[in-house]
Design goal:
The chain contains 11 helices and no strands. By secondary structure, the protein is an all-alpha fold. Helix 2 runs parallel beside helix 4. The two termini are about 90 Å apart.
């Protein structure tokens, strides 16, 4: 909150430019007027001038310092070596693949990632259908087996007869509930 209410904050950049000597005349007058009234900005400006004044006059301050000729030759060799391009050591096929990779794949990597995800899902679905479809075909009984099973079931029902379950007619009476209207009519009668 203090930074939002600080009016000097907008002058800090201009004070830096003024200390470096890079501020235009109209802006320079406004900043100097502010510096005349604000003690904090005066301290900030003085600290900046203490750093920038020696830097502005660096040519005068360091003119007497000259490197030795051996150091100058060493610098010249280093500069020339840095300017020479290094030979490319990649084979042509590798370089072509790297260029293709950067142009085609890397530039649109999100699209390729999405497509790869779709391909993986389709592959998984395809493999799961391939694994389950022969098992389903083998586990399903043929019509001949179903007919034989029903014949055996009828034979078993005839052999068991009355011992296993009540006849179908009684079973329907037991299992089917009466509608409410019929039970209400029976109670009235």
């Amino acid at each position: 909150m203090r930074l939002l209410l600080n009016s000097c904050r907008s002058y800090r950049r201009d004070i830096c430019l003024l200390a470096g000597g890079a501020l235009s005349e109209p802006e320079k007058a406004a900043v100097e007027n502010h510096l005349a009234t604000c003690v904090d900005c005066q301290k900030y400006g003085d600290a900046l001038r203490a750093v920038t004044v020696p830097l502005n006059n660096w040519e005068d301050n360091f003119r007497h310092i000259q490197p030795e000729p051996a150091v100058q030759r060493q610098w010249a060799r280093a500069i020339l070596a840095a300017a020479r391009p290094e030979p490319v050591r990649r084979p042509a096929a590798t370089m072509a693949f790297c260029d293709w990779w950067q142009d085609v794949i890397w530039s649109s990597r999100r699209v390729w990632t999405g497509l790869a995800a779709v391909w993986v899902v389709l592959l998984m679905v395809s493999l799961s259908e391939r694994e389950h479809s022969p098992a389903i075909a083998k586990s399903m009984p043929s019509t001949a087996i179903i007919v034989a099973f029903k014949d055996q079931q009828k034979l078993l029902a005839e052999l068991l007869g009355d011992y296993a379950a009540p006849p179908d007619v009684d079973r329907q009476k037991i299992s089917l509930p009466k509608p409410r209207t019929e039970s209400a009519v029976e109670l009235k009668v």
